[in-house]
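Ticket #4471: complex job returned nothing on first submit. Input attached below:
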Amino acid sequence: MSPIISVKNLKKRYRNSPAPSVDDISFSVKKGEFFSLLGPNGAGKTTTISILTTTLSKTSGDCFVADLDVTTQSASVRAKIGIIFQNPSLDKNLTAEENIRFHACLYGLFPYRPLYTQMSNDYKNQVKSLTEVIGLTATDLNKQVKDMSGGMKRKLEIVRSLMHKPEILFLDEPTSGLDPLSRKNLWDYLTHIRKNNGTTIFLTTHYLEEAEGCDNVCIINHGKIVAYGSPSAIKKQYTGHHTTLEQAYLKIIQETN
Amino acid sequence: MNHELNAILAIAGRDVTKLLRDRTRIIFSFMFPLIFIGILGQSLQANVASSLGFNLLLFTFIGVTAQTLFQSSASGIISLVTDRDSDFAQEMFVAPISRYTIITGKILGESTVSFILVLSILILGLIMGIPIDWTRLILILPAGFLACLLGGAFGVLIMSNLSGVQSANQVFPFVIFPQFFLAGVFNPITHLPPLLFVLSRIAPMTYAVDFLRGLYYFGRPEYSLIVLHSPLVNLTIMSILFLLYLTAGTYLLNRNEKNR
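Support reply: We reran it on our side without changes. The output follows.
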């Protein structure tokens, strides 16, 4: 079976930058895999995610998502993926439901109507079932985003990103700024959708314990891959079986700095 | 419904929803016409209109209507810079729709917003008792949509080269305010010194203002004193500029977004 994400010799150098941010990296992700790209600030994680999600052009190399070229088939790639950005990408002046409706209409899931009451029953049922699972109430849906807490905004982004049932969910530091309970709830939900829908998850995070449950981890530093494998294999290779991924990660980063 | 058309309607609908929640913008939409028509127009009418041979208040009223349609659409498009700064633009840029769909949706939305804002000018004209031929005015308002389209496309071209909200706040007044005078929104521009003549003909707002005036004054005795070009000439120039601005602006926007 061909991988759902395939990256070969990817290189990205920003304009006016002397060194590449991503320097000749290659990796692949299997369908249904929980994959994590780790690394310190500025290592090239967000650059890689931006290229894979078609919002940034690459300098060289090949990137395929769901067997589609991210450069030449970008619109088709975008239909297959869901993204939760590092910074919330919600319209603060719209209500939670209006943000979801906007997304659903951009993805062509339902015909656009100016009012919620005019939307189809299928839309209302899908919003209801998604929000119930994640713990948002009908009252929350009618709140303007600017009046919502950080945790609630993240939940809303997840509901929104799952409306079009993406095959791959890109999560760029999804829990930054969340309290421990909100983080736990978020991961419970992501585990649930991964099990139920077989969604591939591509994660970047600074909370290393979140990556412990991954199938595979790729650690990058200064734009290059410095370690790749399952968390247990990486721990075994660098710090031993009874250590944490964080300990192994710190050792790898120190050695490669 | 076609996917791209559905997305255009969603993007346009968002702009209208946001306007209806933005009390400050609605209140300020009354302020500019009040200054331009109520103060400037009235004072010019009282002091210089007798030598012109036409009603300067009505001249200003039609000019401000065209200017509002053009400017509101242009400034609305600049809000994409705000969306980019607040990270909301990412939501649109990762959706499976073309960049032209995003831009078309924004232009349609901001054009609708402009028409809502123009209502305040019409109300002001009614309150001030300006001698408006309401039948003519209502008939030319659909043509005002073309002024919105031109303003929107102009906004796309400007916005595609802006890096953030701060530069937008600096650049936008610089490219819009001189056009008030160069386009003859409240001052006749049939006779201008050579340099101002050239600048006036470069300013896209000139054609939007002259187009609406041409349609409003068509067949009236003061037509030749007021209108610079026939509506057909204005329409042709506006169409060319629209396509030029839209194509170049969308290309630059796409390139600047992806080729960082």
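Chain B has eleven helices and no strands. Closing as resolved unless it happens again.
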